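Notes from the 1:1 (GR / supervisor)

We went over the backlog. Supervisor wanted to see one worked example end to end before approving the batch request, so GR pasted a single chain during the call. The sequence is below; no edits were made to it. Supervisor asked that the structure be written out right there so they could see what the output format looks like.
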Amino acid sequence: MISALMSPPGGGKTTMAVKTALKLPVHVVDIDRKINQMVEFKPLIDTGRITYWELSETINEDKLAGRLTSLLAEKDKQKPYQAPLGWSKICKYTDGWEKDPLVQNAGTILWDSYTITAIHMKSHMQYISGKSKLIWDAWSAWDQMWQETTNILIDYVNSTATDGCTIKREGEFKGFCEHKNPPKDLIISIHERVSEKPGDKTKSVTVRRDDKGQQQKDYIGQMDVKIAGSVDGAFGLKFGAWFTDVYALRVDINNDGQPKWVCRVHPDGRRDLRCSAKQQFNVKKELISEFEPDYHKIFRV
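Structure output shown during the call:
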């Protein structure tokens, strides 16, 4: 299973992944730097149900006052004074997965989250380009990097462990490689953003260049409102194409003011959701699209 969980902050993405993942243990790539701070997860860490790697680098290495100066400086002086280290550290870590025993022994890898990963990637690209904003060509590179990053993560879990391993087809370790590493699931968490997309009521589009020479598109008519993943650009709308399962989590408040966490697994008109589990129906033969945030109940295992 290659799964994405999307919701606003506090929607229960991390909790659903670490507490209800179908394959254990869960190894968390903790880009958000929060797993070790959450008291409810401590027993799971202590028992080995959760292992984790925490990114230690900040988004930008400049001092706060100096960063503001560089953001507001003239075009040729917008580059940060120090190179950001976060994205480089993330890449170095994933490059060593085939030798990391915590990753190899994991049943599920949780990447938490794409949202903060995007900030590190953007900071790195801004440093390389020497600009505080991405220009048109950089957005193309941005989209390609997200596609390649996602493919690398998926390729790793699909290969079970080290590239070149032989997957056993029968016996006690069926589905494992010769190193007895289990087949893995991948879960990524991502926050939401509102996005507009041309639809049936969009009449036309004009393409022009602004005063900086950047290409701009002006749409005439009504746009469709979509809920996208909180990665800027086109990838935030199309990221679901890489995943077998894309779920949306939310929190409902009942009449007593108590929160209830809900996981929707089928499209709702604004989010492009999907589910690989066998469909379930209620007594009225209506498709069940909302569940408790629990993979076991969604897959009935």
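Supervisor's comment: The chain has nine helices and ten strands.
Batch request approved.
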